[in-house]
Amino acid sequence: QVLLVESGGGLVQAGGSLRLSCAASERTFTAYRMGWFRQAPGKEREFVSAISSSDVTTYYTDSLKDRFTISRDNAKNTVYLQMNSLKPEDTAVYYCAAQRLFAGTFASTYRQANSYDYWGQGTQVTVSS
Q: Each residue of 98-111: pLDDT tens digit?
């Protein structure tokens, strides 16, 4: 069982920045690919970004790739999501998730929420206009 704990959410004005963190309890953190998803009120959970276990490959939803940056520090068992130029439509609960390496080719699974094995409890991000 991997415990994921997100932090860093909060209330920010449009145009501001936040950095989300997700700390994993698993000592073999490098055995997991990591992803960020978000869910706005009344909407389905959507993919935001993902990163390979070795920090070599990253993926973004097209509309966010110019403003969001994913990274991971395997020594700290932590994945980050830097969010810049925030907009009110970025308001959502942000979740991190961990996918085991044998879940399949990451290039074909990173966007699929059901391919991730563990989820955090989420952190609220609210962007005011």
A: 999 876 789 889 99
Q: What is the DSSP string of 21-46?
A: EEEE--TTGGGEEEEEEEE-TTS--E
Signed CA dihedral, 95, 49, 32, 20: sign only: negative
State how far the Cα of 94 lies from the Cα of 104, in Å rounded to an integer.
Answer: 24
CB atoms within 10 A of CB 22: 25
In this structure, are residues 12 and 128 in contact, taking their beta carbons and an 8 Å threshold?
yes
DSSP class per residue in 73-111: ETTTTEEEEEE-S--GGG-EEEEEEEEEGGGS-HHHHTT
Query: What would the two tokens of residue 33 be?
Result: 């690919």
Quick one: pLDDT at residue 54? 85
Please calculate the CA angle 11-13-17 and round it to the nearest 5 degrees.
Answer: 80
Structure tokens at 122: 């989420």
Closest CA to 32 of 95, 93, 74, 92: 74
